[in-house]
Known about the structure:
- It is built from 4 helices and 7 strands, in the order E-H-H-E-E-E-H-E-H-E-E.
- The protein has 155 residues and is α+β, with helices and mostly antiparallel strands.
- It has a single domain, classed as Gcn5-related N-acetyltransferase (GNAT) (Aminopeptidase, 3-Layer(aba) Sandwich), CATH 3.40.630.30.
- Strands 1-2-3-4-5-7-6 form a 7-stranded mixed β-sheet.
- Strand 6 (139-143) and strand 7 (148-154) form a beta hairpin.
- Helix 1 runs antiparallel to helix 2 (25-39).
- The longest helix has 15 residues, at 25-39.
- The two termini are 28 Å apart.
- The model has no long low-confidence stretch (mean pLDDT 96).
Amino acid sequence: xxxxxxxxIEDLEGIRKILEQWTENEEVEKYLGRIKxxxxxxxxxxxxxxxxxxxxxxxxxxxxxxPLPVVIPLAQSGNPGEIKILYLDxxxxxxxxxxxxxxxxxxxxxxxxxxxxxxxxxERYKDTAYGFYxxxxxxxVGLLDNNxxxxxxxx
Length: 155
C-alpha cells in the first residue's frame, strides 16, 4: 500500500537515507533542515514537503516551492511554482511511485494557485530524471549557468 503524507519528525532518518542515495551531504542537510522547519511550523519560500510511504517505510520525498527568480523568465503562465525535490529510494524506481508523486504535487500546486510547475535538474541526473520528467509531460525550457536543465509544464 502506498500513501503520500506530510512528513513527521520520526520520518527524517528515512528521508535522509533516500536523499543520501542521490545528492551530496550539504544538500541532504539543507533539505532535512527545511523539512524539519516545516514540521515545526516554519515555512520559507512557500516550501512544502511530502513523503511517500509504502508499508510504513519512507520510499520517496517531494516538495513544492515558489520558483527561484532565475527561472521566472521561462514561465509560460502567470503564477509558476517549482517542484523543489523529487527523490525515490532506488529500490522502488520504475514501479509508478514517482508518477503518483508528480500527479499529487501537480494537484497540490493547482490548489495553491500555481498555474505551471518548473523542475530544475542537474546534468548528473540526465540518465535517470530527464526521461522521467518528459514521460510525465514536462518539456525542457532552458539551461541555467550552473548546467541545471529546467523543465516546465503548464497545469
